[in-house]
Amino acid sequence: MTLNQMKYFIAVARCLNFTEAAKSLFITQPALSRQIAAMEEELGTELFVRERKTLKLTPGGSILYNGLPDLLKTYGNLIREARSANQGYEGHLRIGILDVYDISELFTDTIQIFQEKYPQIQLTMERFSLGVLPDNLYDGSLDLILTYGFSLFDKPSLMTVDIQKYDSCIMLHRNHPLADKEGVSLSDLKSEMFVQLDREVSEEGYQYIINLCDKCGIHPNIKLVNKMEDVLLWVQTGNAVAITTDKTIEKMNPFVVIREIPVPEAKGHDITVAWLKQNYNPAIALFMELLEKHKKAAEQEQV
């Protein structure tokens, strides 16, 4: 049954007159009669009761007439949405970004290009803590998240793309005795108080830092806080040190310094973009295409 045949059937069912229906469709009455007959043959059932001067729907024809108009409307809407999606003309993309991640190196240019290329896609961005970001994907409040890859290892139903590497670093007050040292061994800080997020805020982040300290042979005194702002506050006031990354916005704070941790376990971790497999928002594919192009261009420049 073709799309035109469905339209022809609806016209005849509405008029209950082949001649009037043919006029409204701008085709001849014999051609319309042949199309309806072909439909009935394909379906294996009569759709109209043809009497001398009257035309009536059969019970089966009535069921078809009750359902086909909505089906055609749905079909038309899907076609329009598909065309708009491929052209990027409309939609909404909601991005969540890790609260301490510095987007300037890679992400900023992608955002600008995306908005220039797809001005009618409404783009929203908001920062969230490490533990909250995956939850916001699962509850549907975000389409994409940008976060540490290790926080997604046990999260099912996600699509992930690693877009950047980062190294773990130590964050010190600018007046700390080791602040001028390029690489800082964690063993040099074994008597210091470390500050980090509570495991209830981010189990993955907590466990990562514990494991890193363990591999470096230290078991420091740790103060647990609930927000990254509080981590920075304790370091900024000179009352603690913290493990952070070389891709953190905290390095812009004039009261702290970020120093390399010269051990293999601190190197080459992933910054990852993730989204739900069942999220079919077409803006995700458009954005990821631009991001991966920008990533490849940045990698080629470094070679």
Gist?
With 303 residues, the protein is α/β, with parallel strands linked by helices. It folds into three domains: 3-87, Orthogonal Bundle (Arc Repressor Mutant, subunit A); 91-165 and 269-302, Periplasmic binding protein-like II (D-Maltodextrin-Binding Protein, domain 2, 3-Layer(aba) Sandwich); 168-266, D-Maltodextrin-Binding Protein, domain 2.
Description:
- Helix content is 42%, strand content 23%.
- The chain is α/β, with parallel strands linked by helices and 303 residues long.
- It folds into three domains: 3-87, Arc Repressor Mutant, subunit A (Orthogonal Bundle); 91-165 and 269-302, D-Maltodextrin-Binding Protein, domain 2; 168-266, 3-Layer(aba) Sandwich (D-Maltodextrin-Binding Protein, domain 2), CATH 3.40.190.
- The strands form four sheets. It has a five-stranded mixed β-sheet with strand order 4-3-5-12-6, sandwiched between helices.
- Strand 3 (91-98), helix 5 and strand 4 (121-128) form a beta-alpha-beta unit.
- It is rod-shaped, with a radius of gyration of 31 Å.
- The relative contact order is 0.14.
